[in-house]
Amino acid sequence: MSKLVRVGISHGDINGIGYEVSLKALCGEKLTELFTPVFFGSPQIVEKARREFGLELPPVHIVKGEDVRDGKLNIVETGGVTHMDVEPGIPTEKSGKAAVEALEKAVAALKSGMVDVLVTSPISKKAVQSEKFHFPGQTEYLQNRLGKEEHALMVLFNDYLKVALVTTHLPISKVPEAITKDRVLFQIKSFEKILKSDFTCDRPKIAVLSLNPHCGDSGLLGTEEETDIVPAIQEAKNEGILVFGPYSADGFFSTGAYRNFDGILAMYHDQGLAPFKALAGDTGVNFTGGLPYVRTSPDHGTAYDVAWKGLADPTSMRQAIYKAIDLYRNRTRHAEASANPLHKARQEKTVDKTIDLSKEEL
Hints:
The protein is an alpha/beta fold. The chain has eleven helices and twelve strands. A twelve-stranded mixed β-sheet has the order 3-4-2-1-5-12-11-6-7-10-8-9, with helices on both faces.
């Protein structure tokens, strides 16, 4: 029997829908036979959610040290908050502080090997801001804490569509200056690696979107295509990457051209996420590619308008959990298949000799 993947889940903002969607996603009689959940949050708020939403959760185990147990809903207590601190629909200093502490403990558990993958619940980007947390989002925080490369790659995906971003949480006024040939080229290469290792695409075809309407109309509506995007695409092609474009975003999605590619690289947040969310509905998952660990999240926010009303849909959170497990297994298999073949051959010869010797002894 293969080892159960340990899935770390941070509770996000306690006043949003993080507890509801996370715990709804963890209901199910045989769920703990599929993976081992490790929830970073408040046991008191877990109990509050269980009662208010009528949830049938797995047996709860409060983790001491790194004593994670299979067959249980493991809870790592964080934040010093209880059910008395919940203020539905309102981002507060306390909810922001608790979200950051849960995230920090979950990241520490990921680095120590206590959990295998990380799924983050939504946070309030305003409430978390402090001297300790000064990032525009969790993606940038995780890049800072876990990253080995210059830019983490935000990838939104479901079973049929994968959209990555050259820039992430950046004011629209600052996007053009961030679109450089080097950055676009780096993200093309990073996306190709991710599609191969994490999504099992042997020879991925990547479409690159333009920054300006109509691909800049030969410089009339902008020059970034001519000066940065096209040269980056050409250099990537010279290196053997199957990359195409740039394509004008409106026609690309409206005509269904996206169906011809394994991945789409958009220049900025809303250019990629607006059409993705319209097409993917509740099945979308946010994945932070380019990190040495697998991190996913649902592709929605805190949804304060429906927080603690029993109305939140757990579909995206459930998908984030199961897709994190799939990505982890894909990456593990890819690493094994990509291992040094000479080293692997030596290992196999050693095993063969051991078997032969055993037969002789018999």
